[in-house]
Amino acid sequence: MLLRDRGGELSKIAGPKTVFEDSKGPLLRNIEIKTKEKDDTKATISFETNETAKVHYWFVERRIKDKDGNLIDNPDAN
After folding, report:
1. Domain limits of the chain?
2. Shortest CA distance to 1 belongs to which of 11, 9, 24?
3. 3-state secondary structure of 25
4. Is 60 in contact with 51 (CB distance < 8 Å)?
């Protein structure tokens, strides 16, 4: 089954249960991502929304190594 997040985006195939049943995603505005000075592995994320929410996020590398050790574009980074 496909999962649809609150913004309406579809995820990859997942388990047999529905996770979100919202019909309208929250309004997000003033999204800002700033990397920490001299450290591109850390960032500050800020935004405004029209509802109270818990935010979950994770880092996804743009480039990964394939089985031969070559750097390739990460298909999950789009």
Report:
1. 24-77
2. 11
3. coil
4. no
